[in-house]
Amino acid sequence: TSAGWPGGLHWLNDATIIGRENLARDLLQPPKKSKYRLDAAGFAGKHGKTDVAAAQAFFVDLLLQSSVASQVGDAEKIEEVACRVACLPEYQLA
Q1: From CA 51, how far away is CA 78, in angstroms rounded?
Q2: What does the alpha-carbon distance between residue 49 and residue 43 come to, in Å, rounded to a whole number?
Q3: Is the Cβ–Cβ distance between 41 and 77 less than 8 Å?
Q4: Which stretches does DSSP call E strand in the chain?
């Protein structure tokens, strides 16, 4: 049998942090920039969040369950908001 996963933050290192951030950026690119893409605007819209400010609060609550919205900064598009949230250090620890 295998010893399994040690749990906690043992998985966290430079490579995994960069890998997770790169994956988030690839998946949340605007349309036509990646064939593997999550439709952040469509997902937020299905939950009634159609403007950038509402989508920012939605993604912070969904992905972080905290109040770090001020760290996301100004964004013009919902996809950009989702990507910024997924690239926050707090997301790496979530």
Answers
A1: 7
A2: 9
A3: yes
A4: none
Task: Give per-residue pLDDT as tens, 57-81.
Answer: 888 888 887 766 566 777 788 888 8
Q: Which residues contact 16 (CB under 8 A, 6 or more apart)?
A: none
Sign of CA dihedral 63, 46, 56, 35: positive
| Amino acid in position 94 | A
Q: Closest Cα to residue 24, out of 78, 86, 68, 72? A: 86
Is 0.90 surpassed by the pTM of this model? no
Amino acid identity of 39?
D
